Amino acid sequence: MASPIMRRKALGRELRKLRAESAQSLEEIAKLLGCSVAKVGHIETGRNSPSKPELMVLMDHFNLSSQDRAVFEEIRQEASQRGWWSTYRLPTWFSNYVGMETDALRVRSFELELMPGLLQTEGYARAVTTLARHMTEPQEVERKVELRMQRQQRLFEEEPLELITVISEAALHRCAKASNVSTGQLTHLIEMGKRPNVTINILPYDLGLHESMSGSFHLLDFPPDTWPSTAYQEYAVGGHLVDDEDIVSELDTLFAELREQALSEQDSVCRISEFLHG
């Protein structure tokens, strides 16, 4: 079953479709529900789930059949449940990402300075989380490390998550300087790259300037006919999901270009080994 976040998004998409088919505005639906236009927008984007009374009003308004009503109410109930990650008390922007990552078939990521979260060792994850004092209180470090390790289990499932990542050589340089965690992290990177569902390409310094020097990004791909590809970008004090089709398409093209400029998988292993043994 899809995660609560994806169920919220699916319900919101269907409600938005019904509103569009009836040629009604957000303002009209807000008046019907007796709420703000912003709340209707949040329901339609899946940020929030409608209450049972609100959904009943909408289903009456759109004259849904008894069969459709049963389906919509089932989705609403599933959307109201808590995901496994809810116990980690995550900020909303990251909770939404973890929920969508849980449902994704494939993650494509470009990393500038950090090792991909799904490929970090416990030691490396603890080191970088401890350093990010502006984001994490000291007493929260172990909880965040545990969450990162839990997320990685998707890579080992019977039908595992596919991970394709392009990592800037800068991340290798910075990792190699952290002598207390570098050996374990670089060795882990090589070992994970042997898995059939994990592809690692290193973007070399020799390339010089490149198109994504301004930041890292992720692309989440979902099963056909469920949800369109979604992008995620993180910055110093937060992050956000992007589902604008034009922006996702641009990042899709950018990722393909970065991967084409990166080293092959075999040459990437050699480059990582240089840092490991150098």
UniProtKB/TrEMBL annotation:
Pfam families, per database record: DUF5753, HTH_31
Superkingdom: Bacteria
SUPFAM superfamilies in the record: lambda repressor-like DNA-binding domains
Record InterPro entries: Cro/C1-type_HTH, DUF5753, Lambda_DNA-bd_dom_sf
Record-given protein name: Transcriptional regulator with XRE-family HTH domain
Domain HTH cro/C1-type: 15-69
One of the record's GO molecular function terms: DNA binding
